[in-house]
Design a protein that fits this description.
Layout lengths: L1 H21 L2 E4 L9 E5 L6 H8 L2 H4 L2 E6 H4 L4 H9 L3 E3 L10 H10 L3 E4 L18 H8 L4 E8 L1 H4 L13 E4 L11 H13 L4 H4 L1
Parallel strand pairs: 1-7, 2-5, 2-6, 3-4, 3-5
Antiparallel strand pairs: 6-7
Helix pairs in contact: 1-2, 1-5, 6-7
């Protein structure tokens, strides 16, 4: 009971701080915040990325949306683990699974089968380069093949690299936006590389022109 109350209070605190510190706002450009299962895939610039996406979702969607998080960062003992597991209900993924352990895509597919929506980052790691996006890994394609009935929604987080610079634990007060694009799905017979190129283009199309300059 106390842990549940603490998690609710921390959730309110986290969302409040995210809104206050970044002025984050949602831009439902290609879809609406509907009660349906989705896989939100986004650009990845900081450990605060999924926090911003989760924050701008309506509370009723937050309750069923699980961020996919790196276990080596979010599952360490202490407050970070409590926040990851109890506040966000994050799906902890080992980025370097041991032989015989379930593959990360299998874990994500199982979470979807159990009724969850997911927030994931197809680059696989934080982008600290000058490139707009790193190459996509195959997980998004494999998940789309495993769960063809689920919408894949591109999400562009703008300004996050300046709001949460690498190595910082607290956000720098700057305006940040989260744009939700038009849902995608695998086309009949579509190969991995073609789909990943299309998904990458859909994500880049949400990038503000001033950011692309």
């Amino acid at each position: 009971m106390m842990a549940r109350l603490a998690a609710r209070l921390l959730a309110a605190l986290v969302t409040g701080l995210a809104r206050f510190g970044t002025g984050v706002r949602p831009d439902w450009r290609g879809c609406l915040p509907q009660m349906r299962q989705r896989i939100y895939f986004a650009n990845h610039g900081s450990h605060g990325d999924f926090v911003l996406i989760w924050t701008v979702l309506p509370p009723i969607l937050r309750a069923t949306t699980r961020p996919v998080a790196a276990a080596d960062y979010w599952d360490r003992p202490g407050i970070r683990r409590f926040v990851g597991r109890n506040v966000f209900n994050a799906l902890m993924i080992n980025r370097h699974p041991v032989p015989g352990a379930p593959h990360p895509v299998e874990l994500m597919a199982e979470a979807v089968r159990q009724g969850s929506s997911l927030i994931l980052f197809p680059e696989g790691t934080r982008n600290t380069t000058e490139a707009a996006l790193l190459p996509f890994r195959s997980g998004l394609y494999r998940l789309g093949r495993a769960m063809p009935e689920i919408e894949l929604v591109p999400v562009w987080i703008d300004n996050i690299s300046r709001v949460m610079p690498k190595g910082e634990m607290l956000p720098i007060p700057l305006l940040c936006s989260v744009a939700f694009g038009t849902p995608l799905g695998l086309e009949m017979g579509e190969e991995r590389d073609a789909f990943l190129a299309r998904a990458r283009a859909a994500l880049l199309s949400l990038r503000p022109k001033e950011s692309a300059a």
